[in-house]
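Hey L., structure's done. Input below.
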Amino acid sequence: MLLEYGSVRTASYRPLVVHQTIPPMDANAALLQELLANQKRELDEFKQTVLASLPERVSRSVPHTVMPFTVRLNAVPIPVEFILPQFTQYGGIGDPQKHLKGFLA
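Output:
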């Protein structure tokens, strides 16, 4: 089919249709996926080994929500005039016994 534009005759425009397909995975990509899957499996096995070797008391550590005091002691209200004492952290220099005396009531 010919189209006429002014005095020029041209062939009809037919767009080039390109069918794009996803190329198959090359050998390197397949190898990388296999290596990644193997590493994940080995890491999972290592994790299970470590967890199984832990003593039961460590693997079932106390949750942070558990209070170190009894329910009865926690029920006692703190006096309004109570001021929490400020202690400096022991830096390893000096007499540790002198530092510990500050904690005595």
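The mean pLDDT is 76. The radius of gyration is 38 Å.

-- N.
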